[in-house]
Design goal:
With about 575 residues, this protein is an alpha/beta fold. It is built from 16 helices and 20 strands. The strands form five sheets. An eight-stranded parallel beta sheet has the order 11-10-7-3-2-1-13-12. A five-stranded antiparallel beta sheet has the order 14-15-16-20-18. α7 runs parallel beside α8 and α12 packs parallel to α15. The longest helix is centred in the first third of the chain and has 16 residues. It binds 1-deoxynojirimycin (NOJ). 1-deoxynojirimycin (NOJ) binds next to loops.
């Protein structure tokens, strides 16, 4: 080979070797080294309940597409849609029977592509739900797995002999009630299911499972998806020896003796799988959000990975369980902000009582909803909203057991009424069925839809919706809210929680009254370098004429001002 030919050959080879895959994207970083998902506002959509384009009582993908302008105007950057894949709907989509298709009840793949194209036009990203722990028992992998002990997919799930006849392999319990094992008379073994029996757990120790699941993410990335919310990450792996879980005090909501979930939850192997999944996500500049239930911040921290090489956004679900209190929130946010990862705040979702209902005191409900928004949407970190939160949608729980749709509610009634209450149709108007459908909605809307709906709140400058829009607009335009650090001030005040977001010569001072009485607070911001700064009110929940370093607040009021040196 001549030298010239050799050089040309080497050049061609380097082009082949270093050309990124067609869909690869590179991360664009801002001046502070942050990327898109750090400043994005995510919005969770439960597709059954968002917008019903064909009026059959169940929402669909075309319904979501028709509301993209609403979402854009609200200030949403990314929508996370809970599962819309083919499913027998035992767990309303969290029992997936095909990861790479659309359930006809939600539309077609062409509808999905249309949604993706329309979202892209508006610069709204799509995040899908990735149900990693289990499939539906109607998935072709499980149907094959169950067919015989020697079927090609047998080892894709967790099958074991019972301890003895009629005795499951161990004492593990399903989080949805009863045992976590179901006996299969055909092959005379038990299979493991952490959730319903119709949701058999995948065996992530089998490399073929990992490969198939990772390929699923590639399939969707290549269709324009920007990331996944990983369902039930902490239950992906089980102890291979299937040891009995140790007992714990008390009984659970199903009346079973409690156990510590030592051998079927939060196993260290999860981290290796997440690191490998992250590598795939990185090829597409995609984000992985975690459904990360933890008992404290240090446990949550583990999900970022020791080199930030696991989940970029493990959700802080702890916040939801904390009592509504200035002192408690101050302490928790301090821990989150100093934990080292990028915080992700959430105040409600499709599995927990809506924030409006949780925090309501019966007298200042709307004020409290605005206060909570002013709080979590001004923190340093990513926010994930839940549809209807911006309207003050409340829980509409079933009144009798026969009205319950969620099997968890049926099993644990009346102790726990299930999750229907937080999944009711989006409230678009004050008309029939809140404008969600002209058919019979799959769940009923509450009477409060008459006042708490998009059409009415759009006309009211002081509505919860208007406050959300204003806050989201500030999040996108105020440098201190985009990049600023978090500094808690007036730390001894147990009623009013206040902090600054500080960036260069500017800061936003956020003052939140978590009490039901009027409060006046004075600030000395000299230690933070803002002693004689110019102050301008940017948003508040009351018309009071305060400002500067003395701020007067109504019960549950908030006040946000911009300080400039
Ligand atoms: C968490 C999901 O959010 C919930 O709705 C579902 O029932 C379980 N995981 C099982 O997939």
């Amino acid at each position: 080979m001549s030298t010239r030919v050799r050089i040309l050959f080497a050049l061609a080879l380097s082009v082949i070797m270093f050309t990124p895959p067609a869909h690869a994207q590179t991360a664009v970083l801002d001046a502070e080294g942050h990327t898109w998902w750090q400043h994005a506002v995510f919005y969770e959509i439960y597709p059954r309940s968002f917008a019903d384009s064909d009026n059959n009582g169940i929402g669909d993908l075309n319904g979501i597409t028709s509301k993209l302008d609403y979402l854009k105007k609200l200030g949403v950057d990314a929508i996370w849609i809970t599962p819309f894949f083919p499913s027998p709907q035992v767990d309303f989509g969290y029992d997936v029977s095909d990861y790479e298709a659309i359930d006809p009840m939600y539309g077609t793949m062409a509808d999905f592509d249309h949604l993706a194209a329309e979202s892209k036009k508006r610069d709204v990203r799509l995040i899908l739900d990735f149900v990693v722990n289990h499939t539906s028992d109607r998935h072709k992998w499980f149907i094959d797995s169950k067919s015989s002990r020697t079927s090609p997919h047998r080892d894709w799930y967790i099958w074991r002999d019972g301890k003895s006849e009629r005795q499951p392999p161990n004492n593990w319990t399903s989080t949805f009630g009863l045992s976590a094992w179901k006996y299969d008379p055909t092959t005379k073994q038990y299979y493991y299911h952490y959730f319903y029996p119709e949701q058999p757990d995948l065996n992530w120790r089998n490399p073929a499972v990992e490969k198939a699941m990772f390929d699923t993410t590639r399939f969707w990335y290549q269709r324009g998806v920007s990331g996944f919310r990983l369902d039930a990450v902490d239950t992906m792996y089980e102890d291979p020896g299937l040891k009995d879980n140790p007992p714990a005090p008390g009984i659970d909501k199903f009346g079973r003796p409690n156990t510590q979930e030592k051998y079927n939850k939060k196993l260290p192997e999860i981290h290796g799988a997440l690191q490998r999944l992250r590598k795939v996500a990185d090829e597409y500049n995609a984000v992985l959000i975690g459904e990360t239930w933890t008992t404290d911040v240090s446990q949550l921290k583990e999900y970022y990975g020791s080199n930030n090489n696991e989940l970029q956004l493990p959700m802080d679900l702890l916040l939801n369980g904390l009592p509504f209190s200035a002192n408690v929130y101050r302490k928790h946010i301090a821990a989150m902000d100093s934990a080292g990862g990028w915080p992700v705040y959430v105040i409600t979702n499709h599995d927990i009582t809506r924030s409006y209902t949780r925090y309501a005191d019966g007298k200042h409900n709307d004020e409290i909803a605005k206060l909570m928004a002013a709080f979590y949407l001004t923190l340093r970190g990513t926010a994930i909203m839940y549809y209807g939160e911006e309207l003050g949608m409340e829980n509409n729980d079933p009144e009798t057991r026969d009205q319950v749709q969620d099997p968890v509610g049926k099993l644990s009634w009346p102790k726990d009424k299930g999750r229907d209450g937080e999944r009711t149709p989006m409230q678009w108007t004050s008309g029939t069925n809140a404008g969600f459908t002209t058919g019979k909605p799959w769940l009923p809307v509450p009477a409060s839809a008459g006042t708490h709906n998009v059409a009415s709140e759009e006309k009211d400058a002081n509505s919860i919706l208007s406050v959300y829009r204003h806050l989201l607009q500030m999040r996108h335009t105020e440098p201190a809210l985009i990049e600023g650090d978090y500094i808690s001030v007036n730390n001894d005040d147990s009623n009013v929680y206040a902090y600054m977001r500080r960036y260069k010569n500017e800061a936003m001072l956020v003052v939140l009254n978590f009490s039901n009485a009027k409060r006046t607070v004075k600030f000395d911001l000299a230690p933070q370098g803002f002693a004689s700064a110019k102050a301008a009110k940017t948003l508040s929940s009351s018309a009071s004429e305060s400002g500067g370093t003395t701020i007067a607040l109504e019960p549950f009021g908030f006040y946000i001002e911009k300080l400039t040196k």
